[in-house]
Amino acid sequence: xxxxxxxxxxxxxxxxxxxxxxxxxxxxxxxxxxxxxxxxxxxxxxxxxxxxxxxxxxxxxxxxxxxxxxxxxxxxxxxxxxxxxxxxxxxxxxxxxxxxxxxxxxxxxxxxxxxxxxxxxxxxxxxxxxxxxxxxxxxxxxxxxxxxxxxxxxxxxxxxxxxxxxxxxxxxxxxxxxxxxxxxxxxxxxxxxxxxxxxxxxxxxxxxxxxxxxxxxxxxxxxxxxxxxxxxxxxxxxxxxxxxxxxxxxxxxxxxxxxxxxxxxxxxxxxxxxxxxxxxxxxxxxxxxxxxxxxxxxxxxxxxxxxxxxxxxxxxxxxxxxxxxxxxxxxxxxxxxxxxxxxxxxxxxxxxxxxxxxxxxxxxxxxxxxxxxxxxxxxxxxxxxxxxxxxxxxxxxxxxxxxxxxxxxxxxxxxxxxxxxxxxxxxxxxxxxxxxxxxxxxxxxxxxxxxxxxxx
Amino acid sequence: xxxxxxxxxxxxxxxxxxxxxxxxxxxxxxxxxxxxxxxxxxxxxxxxxxxxxxxxxxxxxxxxxxxxxxxxxxxxxxxxxxxxxxxxxxxxxxxxxxxxxxxxxxxxxxxxxxxxxxxxxxxxxxxxxxxxxxxxxxxxxxxxxxxxxxxxxxxxxxxxxxxxxxxxxxxxxxxxxxxxxxxxxxxxxxxxxxxxxxxxxxxxxxxxxxxxxxxxxxxxxxxxxxxxxxxxxxxxxxxxxxxxxxxxxxxxxxxxxxxxxxxxxxxxxxxxxxxxxxxxxxxxxxxxxxxxxxxxxxxxxxxxx
Lengths: 456, 305
What we know:
The complex is a heterodimer.
Chain A: H1 12-35, E1 36-40, E2 46-50, H2 52-82, H3 91-151, H4 160-177, H5 181-200, H6 208-228, H7 230-233, H8 259-262, H9 270-296, H10 298-308, H11 310-315, H12 320-346, H13 356-369, H14 374-390, H15 397-401, H16 411-425, E3 433-434, E4 446-447
Helix pairs in contact in A: 1-2, 3-9, 3-12, 3-13, 3-14, 4-5, 4-6, 4-12, 5-12, 9-10, 9-12, 10-12, 13-14, 14-16
Chain B: H1 2-32, H2 39-60, H3 66-93, H4 102-123, E1 128-129, E2 137-143, E3 146-151, H5 152-174, H6 176-186, H7 188-193, H8 198-224, E4 226-227, H9 233-246, H10 251-271, H11 277-291
Antiparallel strand pairs in B: 1-4, 2-3
């Protein structure tokens, strides 16, 4: 783009022609699936109905959008590309970079009291559970997978399998042997990382897309086994009434020995939610802390070296087998922790929670956030998971689109669309600068565009 | 023996469908080196387009000729699915060409999620089932009270697949478009230097891949008569397995891999366990990639520094 001569004038005729073509294309594209609707009639036969108004409004929106793009947005973008880029980033960016992490940690620590003060005890559960805990689970999974994908450069599309191993090990051990959450948490992590090594072994020779597809196959195999191994896992029906975690032995119940009674408080279910929030927050911060420390250890440096160039790694005497397996094991361990937390929080698990969609969402969070960047992953998780959770609450849209409009249907649709858009906008993810863990004289932030391409 | 023969017939039918989808994977991988994750969902979209064409023909126009119905379904599905895949390539993959390696893959996963949810939102989440279009069968022979049959619809699938594969082979092997495709596969920069329009060739590849998926989709609809928005993922992964088994990038390999996967799946369901039939295909995928990464007909991947 920058090589072209600057365009000063907007060609309206061309833009109109362009918009017309786009409209024609959109008409052809959406004619079958939006123009017609297949419905079951009373005799259970399929019949067709038409939706011409909807089809034409969609086409009109797309045409107007295209026109607006070529008349307004494209010249603006071209003008912006002409402007010289400042050699040093502005001062505010350095300030944000310096203070973002302490501020974010402070914010998540005071989030529960803040929510309770603003939304009241009744309204707080939704904000803590749907936004706080749900998003934190995905942040933790994203950080765990970040070790495998972001640091070691091994694209794992079956990560949810380890999450499932953690969840099922907590559920089964807690139900069968009555062990507590805090004992089972490390056990679930160990089991998951054992499976990480087990599944990692056969795929050591693979790289890139092939590795991705085989890990996808492994993830699906684990799910199919969970569905069909009914004696152990109860199949599709799943495992219900899984014991809930206790506050060092004190259950969160309305009984006399419950948390509220022991501390002389009025009973409300919010206490459990607050407790779970801090547990997952602690686990997520542990993941981040361990990752940050590991990056400075030889094994972490070996991971990053492996991501950049496997052949160079091998010729320098790094044991790539061990390096890859430790990455798989570490990543799987954190998924196991998250899984056992998930089982304890839900009280019910079934294979439906561990589909390929989950793996894809976690990979999406890691890649969209910028591989290897912890803050980027957290921001992506908040945007993607929090964003889709907000979709549940957009009731005002019913006033615009009619009472049958259900915004939750569009969650995954927009999720997929957002993945494509962010990739086109920023193929390297939201935060694409890499902070070197080893440096000669001074630490400099490098744009990832300058970093050699890893082929792992 | 009789059961085996019957399963052989079933397996070849299923395998033809997988082979057609696998060709789409292998062509796209061959030319731009990316696993087109959304291809299974493009296949699912084509089944829906064929279904809508079928309903227009039978319930609105009242056409009773099966041959005409099938022909129109095929053409409509091929045209509209090609358009869909052409737009997908333009919108989601072309801007990422030459970019960071994982970017197109993530974009394709996003497209796959988008397509299946788009169909769910626009056509509803329930299974769509139609009455069987083609009924009747050849009774081949009966032994031990087991009748081996060849349903007419299987025969149609075999014939249509074979004829259209022939056309496809002609397109790739004998026309200038096919030559341009093979040139881009080998070296895009060099192909561009000698005057091949690389962008157009890649677009054409996506169009052909979609047309093949649409043939598979129409055959799938005729065979099973049921489709839902989630039906793209599993056939997609199995067809990808077929492409890998045959050697990704190799066109005959994709067809043979598809037939093999179809046979493995039907035999496995019959003789081992129907619950674990998907495990069979996935295990084949893993085993092939680990022990025979270049597949049956693929070129070994030479690693250069």
